[in-house]
Fold this sequence. Notes:
Layout: H1 2-14, H2 43-57, H3 61-74, H4 80-95, H5 103-123, H6 128-147, H7 151-167, H8 179-195, H9 200-203, H10 211-224, H11 229-242, H12 247-260, H13 265-277, H14 281-296, H15 304-320, H16 324-340, H17 347-362, H18 366-379, H19 385-397
Helix pairs in contact: 1-6, 1-7, 2-3, 3-4, 4-5, 5-6, 6-7, 8-10, 10-11, 11-12, 12-13, 13-14, 13-15, 14-15, 15-16, 16-17, 17-18, 17-19, 18-19
Amino acid sequence: MYKRLALMLVFICGLTGIASVKAQGPSSSTTVNAPSKYLLLDKGLQYRITKSINSMYNFDFPTAEHDFAVFGFQYPDHPLPDFLMALGYWWRIEVDVTNERYDDLFIEYLDRAIEKAEDMWDEDDTNKEAAFFLAAGYGFQGRLYSERQSWTKAAWAGRNSLKYMNLSRGEAEFNPELLLGDALFNYFSVWIPENYPMMKPVMSLFPKGSKELGLKQLETVAENAFYTRVEAQYFLFRLYASEEKRPYDALRISEYLNTKFPNNPYFHRSYARHLYAVGKWTESMKESLEILSRIDSKMPGYESNSGRYAAFFIAQYYDRIGDKAEAKRYYLKTISYGEETESQESGYYLHSLIQLGKIATAEKNKPLAKKYFNQVKKYAKRKHPAHQEARDFIKKNKL
């Protein structure tokens, strides 16, 4: 629990690398009239780089990275090209955060971006763009280190990120890019003490936030930002689905992202998940079958973690229509994918074991059923609903 809480604190302080240390609303003006010294605000560059960024989110990394390399040749001393390269590796990691294959490259590109931003800052310590990239670089480093439970490194990166977040303020032209950080701070500075009362003393050291304002700010960024728009949409559909209990809003955003970036496996499985959540099981199964097909054909980013989601949704569909043979087949696939990613404590894995146990019981195979339910008890914490259900089923059916 304490590690998870520490992750949440790093999450608040450095998740996007552009959060503010002050909870506040958006600037009254979001009109961009860029000073020439700020490359981020160059409308011509934004026009030229749109295709490249879209390629990155669509998991066409060769195209995106070729373009980013060209921008790096054109702007060799600017942190933006290296930062975008790092962001591409972050999305490779995001698909399955347990996979550490891309960690070194991700950190390497962030280090390059930070070094270039530091040079800019040394030349002019009023350069808000340099501060922006320093905050972003350290923030993303803290995000990865927290996932890897490297708490000392995460805290150090988070501290540096906070330092430059504050220094990056003062240029209204950077809104709504900077607003993403404000939004996340406003929301999670309230969410953490609500869900973890023991953290109230710690969170009292931070300015007071507002979840309602945080959501409105996220929506503003999702509609108006250039560089942070997709990231805001990502956080919005996650919050709508899990915390705000607005599944149809989560579905709306994930459908848009899946349509715009049809080869992004994270958006694809999220779309299938949100279809399932609102009871559109046939549509969810269709998307899930496509996910499994893409895994089999080794499409970039499609791997066992996405397979675990997809196989479970398909199994649930067949279970609901009474086709136990197919349901069993896909529950077993869920188990297999879960073991590949060492996700035995996940809800889909545990629920699949329970359903397999019930199917085995119906087939009069009590030894097999007992094996499945004992696996639930092995992997689920005692207070987990799956653990309780397994104990109750074993007792009721005398397994």
